[in-house]
Design brief:
Elements lengths: L1 H28 L5 H9 L3 H13 L7 H13 L3 H13 L7 H14 L2 H15 L4 H12 L6
Helix pairs in contact: 1-7, 2-3, 3-4, 4-5, 5-6, 6-7, 6-8
Length: about 160
């Protein structure tokens, strides 16, 4: 039964990644912003642009794959309160990609993403957060919940 839940979470994560990738490809075909325009908007503080740049670094689509750069851009967008970036940053902390593996930080970001996500994404975000919680000790979980409760967005 446990492996079925893990498989369902993995399948949902793959679908979300494929959807985001397809969306980025469609945007490029529609004449979406160039890499330079996107980076400019990201540097000016646009959290959507920051998350898109981060995704490009994470996946190696349009920019060289670099988890460290991806984590940095996701972090900037996540700090502003952008749920998709909080979710992806939490996944990087869970896997230790571009950042040290840290379940407390992973849970914090995944919890924040779930609490602010639109209803269509909330259930998925909660499942991923709960999958990370199963890897944590009671003390780690308490610490992560405290951190997410006391977190405030930065402009």
């Amino acid at each position: 039964m446990h492996w079925q839940k893990a498989l369902a979470i993995l399948a949902a994560a793959v679908l979300v990644t494929l959807h985001a990738s397809a969306e980025a490809d469609a945007q490029a075909r529609r004449g979406g912003p160039s890499g330079a325009q996107l980076l400019g908007a990201a540097e000016r503080g646009d959290p959507r642009a920051q998350a898109r740049v981060a995704f490009m670094y994470e996946t190696g689509r349009g920019l060289p794959q670099d988890y460290y750069q991806a984590a940095g851009w996701y972090h900037r967008a996540a700090e502003s309160g952008f749920p998709p970036a909080q979710h992806r940053l939490g996944l990087l902390f869970d896997k230790g990609q571009g950042v040290p593996e840290d379940y407390v930080e992973a849970y914090k970001w995944l919890n924040l993403a779930a609490s602010a996500a639109p209803p269509a994404q909330r259930e998925f975000y909660l499942r991923v957060r709960d999958a990370v919680a199963r890897k944590m000790t009671h003390i780690q979980l308490t610490q992560a919940q405290w951190l997410s409760t006391h977190w405030r967005p930065r402009p």
